Amino acid sequence: MKVQLNNARSLRPGSMNRMQRMIARRIRWIVIATALLAGISLAQSGTDVKQKKSPDLTGTWTTTITPPSESGAPPFKLLFTFTGDGNLLATGTAGDFPALGNPCHGVWTRTGDHTFALTYLCLDFDSSLQFTGSDKIRGTLNIDNATGQLSGRLDLTHFDTDNNLIFNGCCATAQGTRLQIEQLP
Fold it and tell me: Within its chain, how far is the Cα of 74 from the centroid?
């Protein structure tokens, strides 16, 4: 032990740095090789990956929301992500300043074999990025057993910045598809 300690003490600082660089390079190559092998393994096992037409809502859905015709609002895109623990995230292209995506958070639950209830809140902003109020959306969604397509109805309640009720809107429709895994060529 003393011999090894004495030998380590007799090493010059430059040789220690060289040794540390060699060790760091070896570790780097080991990490790269491990990552490559893991990637190859996952790619081979994932070549047959197909998402089933699941009656489960979890995952990400691309949807088109069509407000009632009397609202005068055009249809818009909305991305939903439903988590396994009953939470949801949504962002869309509606509102006065759609570049912000009108961030939305909420909850969902299963109410039947292919039916679900949800409630979520969205924050609204104007073109100068000032908070203008919020929306509470409640709805029901269904997954078609044959096609796996999502459809449903959403009702909106709009509040001002002090959470005072401004209006209730009924019966926007939602149509969507589950985001699928796409393998690299």
Answer: 25
**What Cα–Cα distance (Å) separates residue 34 from each residue in 25, 47, 116?**
14, 20, 42
Report yes or no: 86 and 109 within 8 Å, Cβ to Cβ: yes
Cα–chain-centroid distance for residue 11?
53
- One DSSP character per residue, 37-101 reads HHHHHHHHHTTT------S---EEEEEEEE--GGG-PPPEEEEEEE-TTSEEEEEES-SS-GGG-
93-132 tens-digit pLDDT: 876 555 556 789 999 999 999 999 999 999 888 878 888 8
Tell me the pLDDT band of 160, cut-offs 50, 70 and 90: very high
Q: Spell out the residues 6+ positions from residue 180 whose beta carbon is closer than 8 angstroms to its own.
A: 51
Rg (CA), the chain: 27
What is the Cα–Cα distance from 60 to 91, expressed in whole angstroms?
A: 11
Return d(Cα 51, Cα 114) in angstroms, integer.
17
Global confidence as pTM? 0.68
Cα–Cα nearest to 141, from 177, 92, 105, 103: 177
* Topology annotation, domain 59-178: Lipocalin (2.40.128)
Tens of pLDDT along 22-49? 666 665 555 554 444 444 444 444 444 4
* DSSP-assigned letter for residue 47: T
